[in-house]
Amino acid sequence: MTNETTPAPNFIRNQVRDEIAGGQVTKIVTRFPPEPNGFLHIGHAKSICLNFGLAEQLGGECHLRFDDTNPAKEEQAYIDAIKEDVSWLGFEWAGPVRFASDYFDQLYAWAQHLIREGKAYVDDLSPDEIREYRGTLTEPGKPSPYRERSAEENLDLLERMRNGEFGEGEKVLRAKIDMASPNINLRDPILYRIRHAHHHQTGDKWKIYPSYDFTHGQSDAIEGITHSICTLEFEDHRPLYEWFLNNLPVPAKPRQIEFARLNLDYTLTSKRKLKLLVDEQIVDGWDDPRMPTISGMRRRGYTAASIRKFCEMIGVTRSDGGLVDIAMLTHAIRSDLEDNAPRAMCVMKPLKVVLTNVPADHEEVYEVPGHPAREDMPMRKVPFGRELYIEQNDFMEDAPKKFFRLAPGKEVRLRNSYVIRCDEVIKDDAGEIVELRCSVDFDTLGKNPEGRKVKGVIHWVSAAHGVPMEVRLYDNLFMVEQPDRDKDVDFLEHLNPESLVVCEAIGEPSLASAAPEDRFQFERVGYFCADRHASTAEHLVFNRTVGLKDSWAKIKQKG
């Protein structure tokens, strides 16, 4: 794990800072250009933090632009979710939200320009024929029989394509570059396809839509982007990016810089596969807390600060460092919540305890710190009475020597309260433990008992005052580090059947006032967040964000 006292590498920030110092760039302008065909995931968070972070740190600006060139897969709901995610992460885009579709008229005019220059043509080859003619990595492509059409014919055909005279797949507009280029991206790439699809921004105005490659660099140029920052899979597209800029009368020439994308173990970041999980109802929508989407992580209880911290920890390099350990991500959120989440007690699997030497009408209320190291957090009130609930696994009838919780004849301290001793175990007809009878040492509130040492401390909730809650215990959605590594095995076969376990728990009364997205450390259990959609005052729902380390589990593993 990266040493948090040592700045993580960020070669792009260093490079741009040097350019500004050297006068090559006066003001950096970056952009975050998502396609609105799904929700953003943790990989996008790295790009967001990089592009917006550079603008923040170096006195520039960052645009939010939707590269909306494929209306068949795009939805307004995705646009709204992306805007909310960027804002939630704490970033502000410069100017209005932009769309590549804002530039469709200009892009069309530039396509006509390429035709007039003899650098583009309308092709009648089918999609399969285009693939066949393109060649392979080891064999050059061959020219289309339609490659030498006249500019006049190409302009006429393009206009007729725009007017909807042809069906989808009948014709495309291609750039005329080099069918023998070792870079397949330069083998006459497609500029326009026919799509009879309604567009969420332009309606039914267009029957043809530009390709991503033709749209992206020119949109950057129109907006005056100085640095077009993208992941390494676009490195082979850079010569095409530059070819368009060099062969069109664009107002600016941005520079493309690539960096290594984020690959997180036990996680999928393929939008297509994430959409499959949603469509097949394997998860409960794009913001299911098991999803690696920003909205899913937010719903699970991750903070914006923890995601930004994680992105800073992993750094920005050009080398593909393989899988990032998901423990780095959980470390970032655990560190944040350790410092900032108020404490509360919650019993996940209740076992009833009756304190036999406490009167039935006895009640005490303890004033307990909201956080052990935060005086700015308000105190909370914890009531105590004759009947309590403790965790089932905090009691063992036949306890080994190193089990310092409750057992017959043994003592344990109740958190913030007294030491109790287990005197009797009550079982039902099936032999299951249903109740413990215990006694209180009333001389142990805030001090150790006389003449004996009590090592164990357990959490508890008053039976009379406890708040019933639904608690959702989330874990990794997949059981293997790389769910989609083996192309011969369906990634769905690696789903974790225990990725969600729901239990009915009992929490201390202070939790009754929890608002959606309020985060807590449930003492000795883990960090939890009130579900932003499901939790109400009438029905509290808490999602486990991340667990705590279990020392007892380690002892058991050691044998």
UniProtKB/TrEMBL annotation:
Name of the top EC class for this enzyme: ligase
Reactions catalysed: tRNA(Gln) + L-glutamine + ATP = L-glutaminyl-tRNA(Gln) + AMP + diphosphate
Sequence motif: 'KMSKS' region, positions: 268-272
Subcellular compartments: Cytoplasm
Domain of life, per lineage: Bacteria
Glutamyl/glutaminyl-tRNA synthetase class Ib anti-codon binding domain location: 341-441
Domain tRNA synthetases class I (E and Q) anti-codon binding: 457-531
GO molecular function terms listed in the Swiss-Prot or TrEMBL record: ligase activity
Segments carrying motif 'HIGH' region: 34-44
PANTHER family in the cross-refs: GLUTAMATE--TRNA LIGASE (PTHR43097:SF5), GLUTAMINE-TRNA LIGASE (PTHR43097)
NCBIfam families: glnS (TIGR00440), PRK14703.1 (NF011291)
Name used for this protein in its record: Glutamine--tRNA ligase
Native source organism of the sequence: Vreelandella lionensis
